[in-house]
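Slack export, channel: ligand-projects

TW: morning all. Re-posting the request from yesterday since it got buried. We need the structure predicted with the small molecule present, not the apo form. The ligand is molybdenum atom; the SMILES is in the block with the sequence. No rush, but it would help planning for next week.
GE: picking it up
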Amino acid sequence: MKDKNEKREFKLSRRQFLKASAATAVMAGTAGTSKYFISQAVAGGSPTPLKEVKYVRSTCSPNCTSSCGIRAMVVDGQIKALFPTNDYPEPEYGPRGCLRGLSYINVIYGPDRIKKPLIRTGERGKGEFREVSWEEALDYTASRLQEIATKYGPESVCFSFQVGGTGHVQKGAWIALSTLAGWNLNHPYDKNGDLPMFWPQTFGVQSEELEPLEWANSRYIAVFGSNIMVTRLIDSDFLIKARNNGAKLVVFDPNYCPTAAKADEWVQLKASSDAALALGMARVIIEEKLYDEEFVKTFTDMPLLVRLDTRKRLKAEEVKGLDKPADIPPYRDVFVAYNGQFLAVHPEKLELPLNVILEGEMEVELKDGQRVKVKPVFQLLKEHLTGYTPVYVEQETGVAGDTVVRLAREMATTKPLHVIYGASNYQWYHGDLKGRALALLPVLTGNIGKPGAGISTYAGQYKIRFNVKEWWFPKPPRWLPWLYILNGPTKSMKAKWPANGVKAFIFGWGNPFDQHNMADRLRQMAIKGDLEFIVGMDHQMTTSCLYSDVVFPVASWYEKTELTTTPLHPYMQLQQPAIKPLYESKSELWIAREIAKRLNPDFEKYFFPGLDENTAAEKAIELLLATGGPPVAGITLEQLKKGPVRLKSEVPGNRQIPFYEQVQFKKPFPPVSRPAAIEATAQFVKSGRIEFYKEEDTFMQLGETLPVHKPPFVESEYALNPGAKGKYQFAFITRNSLYRIHSNHSNNIWMNELQDNKPKVFLNPEDAAEKGIKEGDLVEAYNDRGKVRGYAVLDPGQGRKIIIFEQGWWSRYLKGDSYNSLTYPFIKPTHEVYFVAGIWAPNTAWNEALCDVRKAGEV
Ligand SMILES: Nc1nc2c(c(=O)[nH]1)N[C@H]1C(S)=C(S)[C@@H](COP(=O)(O)OP(=O)(O)OC[C@H]3O[C@@H](n4cnc5c(=O)[nH]c(N)nc54)[C@H](O)[C@@H]3O)O[C@H]1N2
Ligand SMILES: Nc1nc2c(c(=O)[nH]1)N[C@H]1C(S)=C(S)[C@@H](COP(=O)(O)OP(=O)(O)OC[C@H]3O[C@@H](n4cnc5c(=O)[nH]c(N)nc54)[C@H](O)[C@@H]3O)O[C@H]1N2
Ligand SMILES: [Mo]
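GE: finished. pasting the full token output, ligand included:
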């Protein structure tokens, strides 16, 4: 399947390379831009004239969480090599940079680079375009968007971008333009399936995580389906350091992944059975009284009483003799606890007396004279968990019952405990239930808000860590979750569906026609013309660009000015232009400004008119720093030009420890999830506490008031098609690849050589034998929705009845097939109970897909 058209246009001689390495050695540890002169010796002759060599410190910015500083060596205006940086004030975070990032030069100067603006001439998806001037491309785009907005309403135009952390400035320009024009925005976090819905449900936040430097403080690290050795490669050494410090590392994964290989213990469990395991462990922790009673009473909803008649929490205003205090904000509720008397529990003051009761049943007199029975949440949980016996857990998970009991005791007694819950694990239909069950482990044991303790989910550079409002939202944004675009509106949706649907689609920083074309829907919407106009922005000719009507060539990370952050390390960094934008490419801010002024002359003023694109970007950075609030207080552009700067926090040393303020200073839950206002997210946990009891009607109807184990596929695949049960027995897991960052590097010839230029289908040898498949056979994973082919890799460490196909291959390497044609855009009703974009919204469940596998004919 090797693409014969690929060749690397850019060459570096061995001699030049050695010189470059020597020069870098001298430069190691410095940051910013500097100029060097080296002489180029010509074999056997005199030295050639001096060449200008400069080193520019920039940041690698695919959506991979690492956000590595990179130094570009530029000789006479061309990037000759990329080197890792080691300039972090805390040396533990360096050196940063992996083989993918360091070989991005193959992409920057590669054959897929888009040279000029393009307008489609042939059918969508076929890649027939004519090269046009910027003037023509911009005029055409602005007039088509205007036409569609007039005909269907501006909300029928949708701008789909990718995670904010990889660049606040350029993306911000398009977000700002969308708000000015009244377009809809797609939030990337739920679109990617990266939004772990247990977070808003339990803690009221978008997501949280310990910074890796804190891993070293843990004594027990329990990893549930997070392949850190591959997907957090640059920071994976922190895991090893933690082990060297005496921490125990246990990896729970159906597959013997590289992270399991580094663990003290690998626990192989059945796919998507994590909730059963966690609830089995929680049962042991409660029955053996290994929980932290004071923590549970102070910070959780465990002491709050639930009415047995309505199954809702008892509210203070219902109880005879109790009242709701006057100063309660509208997004809070006052519930009731019992310590011999009924107590109104103030939702903003975490100060219940410690003699409050966690167990038993009480009777309470209501204001209308009615007497009703009530129980604390803890009592209900305890009763609920009695079903999760070692025998049941073993049956559901495949993990021996005595192992479950032993691990529960270890986790409860070895502190600090850190649970890491991986994206692939929550990208299942019941990912929220698994997360709620897993959260019980650190919460019951008091491992929250403390160094080295907690539960973390590391997925993408999603996090907005300071206030971006002044640059991003000149007008209030309007958001439409991705899954509705694919599915159409649902009866229970809270987001607003545009009256005439989505008619124009603009994308940038992403490759949705490979990465998000679930069940081929997006491609069909383009081919059938439901989407009347599609605009793509990329520096490479991706599959998505092939489906676009207009393609804008944009500057790569080494050709423009940007501001980046990631949840995985605490540094703010710049992208600084090492070279001029190649060919006719331009930065997104420039393009946004040009479209803005064509749509409405009043819009241009928001985009620093008259300034060149890099100066304008610097102005935007200054604005963001000036208005970003406490996390960026005192940080200046000049400082950032010199190197990475740590963001500020309330924790000593500015460490990133989630809920530190809640636990140390007894502030109510939740802390803010930017850019949403606290009013929008605090309603998720109305008690101001960590909540395990969800009383909203949808949770009740689905039997999910408390965390529960539900097996995969029953409410998704089998509900969609009962016949799927017998027909398709393999779980189709599309984990992330070592050789790509999603579809980035799909066309990087070095990365492809390392994979023998062949997509792979991983399966267990016993499953392969049953299917008559041998190592290296070309096989096809398929279901009623689609198929994808690859070469069989038989891995005895892989779980039974699992097919792994590593996501990210561009369609052209799959002969037009797509791994995402097998997946399906299921929407879980509990994700629709509230709507705050990217915080409580329907999350994509990539792994909730069934398939079968067979030998394929050569293609
Ligand atoms: N090299 C590389 N690194 C990346 C990325 C990339 O594309 N390439 N992408 C980045 C982004 S945006 C993200 S979101 C993250 C995601 O990174 P991760 O969270 O690590 O996700 P995956 O690599 O998909 O899968 C991790 C593990 O989950 C296991 N798993 C699958 N289902 C289950 C289950 O039901 N239970 C349990 N216990 N385990 C399960 C898989 O076997 C796999 O070993 O990676 C980031 N880092
Ligand atoms: N089946 C399946 N599908 C998945 C997943 C899965 O596990 N299974 N994982 C999901 C996850 S976690 C994620 S995060 C998504 C990622 O999905 P996408 O973000 O759509 O995928 P990428 O390949 O990261 O796309 C990045 C594109 O942005 C371009 N780009 C890079 N820099 C710039 C820039 O500065 N400006 C512009 N305009 N473009 C730029 C790159 O060239 C590349 O084409 O995929 C999701 N899709
Ligand atoms: Mo992601």
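GE: first-pass observations. The longest strand covers residues 51-59. The radius of gyration is 27 Å.
TW: perfect, thank you
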